């Protein structure tokens, strides 16, 4: 009874109205409700704005988080090198000069199976495209150097980081085979050896990346002189300018027989004109400053991209994009490595000297290829203060044997018998393993030397009175090569007036990103 009565009394108390609680009416809320006090006096419109802002912030954070996780998850990575030791300290991606090796893989795995069987691309696949992108430290210039896939080069010792398998060095191998056994890092080491430069990063894409990227930007304008059909690549285009995307964009880049004489150099020019057009479109449409467009492109690219460990993050890729967005397209130079048919096989190519060594030397010296007469900007390594000599004296290095050093004389002077005269001087100076041949005429004499022959080159140059400024490293040269120009037509001592560096060929730049170039069609494939 008592307990029931208490319950009813309590219910009556709860329904009795304000009662004593009214004493706190002016004292704010009671208990947990007290924390809402400031909001009770807030105008309705301000509450609404606060709620909307909070919602937007949460949505923005969630959106950014989603895209960061998505893009990060898209990225595939591989080691930068395959055993080659770095000769330079790592550069600063945001502020330093940067070299990025861009590769197109011919793998037929996954989405690429329609272009052939897995047997068509063994191991890691071959590099269907190889370009070295060189970004200047001041972000005012970009050089894009193309290497023909038929170019014969020396591939250094490489190690597959996954299988721990060692692959010995090879000589006279097509450059597109460099990554097929030991991976992308071996292609990087090969380019380092060939150019004497230091690649900082690589980016490798497959066939599918080209199709999806061209779709993402809404097509890329290309031009060809005549209507053409290439059954091998499936390229079919009318004469003049066309917008290509998807399969046709890939066919334009893959086609080899459709252009000029049907060789790889014509294909390189087509690839360069495609990239030039793509660059103009992205710049003209403000894509690099449009977050929505950039996200779309980034999603497409990262799904089909393999990069080195240093680039395997969204912030690292954004850093590269930010450096490129404001560059003047007239300062984006597309260059093909100078080549000539290989003596052993006219269907293969070798570096044409002295033009090849001159190009690599100009790149190392940071010369503006669009204006070679402009003063070169020295790299940090060239301007650094020499370090102090070690406190301990290093053991003396044994003097090399002059009699077994390979030294050749290339006669580009235009004077018959000129090489023989200099060979006699070299033999008299102790360099008895000599050779000579007739070469393309050049204006300036230079002494080129391969890896490990710098000291030999210095002695050869001193013997002939050639200044040190005309000594040029050329990894493709075996030993030392004295390339005699029209400034050294007589005598065995180079004159006092020849101190300038060897000039670049006037046609070294195929085009800039600002040039609209129409490809010449192969007459055999023109549609009449």
From TrEMBL:
InterPro entries: LytR/CpsA/Psr_C (IPR027381), LytR/CpsA/Psr_CW_biosynth (IPR050922), LytR_CpsA_psr (IPR004474). The chain crosses the membrane at residues 44-69. The keyword Transmembrane helix applies. Residues 406-488 form the LytR/CpsA/Psr regulator C-terminal domain. Residues 372-392 have a biased composition (Low complexity). Residues 1-27, 369-399 are annotated as: Disordered. Keywords: Membrane, Transmembrane, Transmembrane helix. It comes from the Bacteria. Residues 126-283 form the Cell envelope-related transcriptional attenuator domain. Pfam families: LytR_C, LytR_cpsA_psr. Residues 1-11 have a biased composition (Basic and acidic residues). PANTHER family: POLYISOPRENYL-TEICHOIC ACID--PEPTIDOGLYCAN TEICHOIC ACID TRANSFERASE TAGU. NCBIfam families: lytR_cpsA_psr (TIGR00350). Belongs to the LytR/CpsA/Psr (LCP) family. This is LytR family transcriptional regulator.
């Amino acid at each position: 009874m008592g307990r029931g009565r208490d319950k009813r009394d309590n219910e009556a108390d709860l329904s009795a109205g304000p009662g004593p609680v009214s004493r706190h009416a002016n004292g704010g809320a009671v208990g947990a409700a007290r924390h809402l006090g400031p909001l009770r006096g807030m105008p309705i419109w301000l509450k609404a704005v606060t709620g909307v802002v909070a919602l937007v912030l949460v949505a923005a954070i969630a959106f950014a988080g989603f895209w960061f996780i998505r893009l990060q998850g898209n990225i595939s990575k591989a080691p930068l090198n395959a055993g080659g030791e770095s000769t330079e300290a790592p550069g600063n991606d945001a502020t330093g000069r940067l070299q990025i090796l861009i590769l197109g893989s011919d793998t037929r795995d996954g989405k690429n199976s329609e272009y052939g069987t897995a047997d068509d691309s063994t191991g890691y696949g071959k590099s269907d495209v190889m370009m070295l992108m060189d970004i200047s430290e001041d972000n005012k210039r970009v050089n894009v150097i193309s290497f023909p896939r038929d170019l014969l080069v020396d591939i250094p010792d490489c190690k597959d980081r996954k299988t721990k398998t060692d692959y010995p060095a090879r000589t006279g191998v097509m450059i597109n085979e460099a990554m097929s056994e030991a991976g992308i890092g071996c292609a990087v080491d090969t380019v380092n050896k060939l150019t004497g430069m230091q690649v900082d990063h690589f980016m490798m894409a497959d066939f599918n990346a080209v199709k999806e990227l061209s779709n993402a930007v809404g097509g890329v304008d290309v031009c060809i002189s005549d209507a053409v059909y290439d059954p091998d690549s499936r390229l079919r285009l009318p004469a003049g300018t066309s917008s290509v995307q998807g399969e046709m964009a890939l066919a334009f880049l893959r086609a080899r027989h459709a252009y000029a004489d049907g060789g790889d150099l014509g294909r390189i020019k087509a690839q360069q004109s495609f990239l030039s057009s793509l660059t103009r479109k992205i710049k003209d449409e403000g894509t690099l400053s449009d977050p929505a467009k950039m996200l779309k492109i980034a999603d497409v690219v990262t799904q089909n991209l393999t990069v080195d460990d240093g680039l395997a993050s969204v912030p690292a890729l954004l850093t590269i994009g930010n450096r490129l967005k404001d560059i003047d397209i007239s300062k984006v130079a597309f260059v093909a490595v100078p080549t000539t048919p290989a003596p052993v096989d006219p269907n293969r190519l070798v570096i044409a000297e002295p033009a090849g060594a001159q190009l690599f030397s100009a790149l190392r010296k940071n010369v503006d290829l669009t204006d070679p007469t402009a003063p070169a900007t020295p790299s940090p390594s060239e301007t650094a203060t020499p370090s102090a000599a070690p406190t301990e004296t290093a053991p003396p290095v044994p003097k090399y044997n002059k009699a077994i050093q390979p030294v050749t004389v290339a006669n580009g002077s235009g004077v018959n018998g000129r090489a023989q005269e200099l060979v006699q001087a070299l033999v008299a100076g102790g360099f008895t393993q000599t050779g000579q041949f007739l070469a393309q005429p050049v204006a300036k004499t230079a002494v080129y030397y391969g890896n490990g022959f710098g000291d030999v080159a210095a002695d050869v140059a001193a013997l002939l009175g050639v200044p040190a400024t005309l000594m040029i490293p050329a990894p493709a040269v075996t030993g030392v090569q004295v390339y005699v120009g029209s400034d050294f037509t007589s005598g065995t001592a180079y004159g006092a007036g020849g101190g300038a560096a060897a000039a670049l060929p006037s046609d070294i730049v195929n085009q800039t990103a600002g040039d609209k170039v129409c490809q010449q069609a192969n007459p055999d494939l023109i549609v009449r």
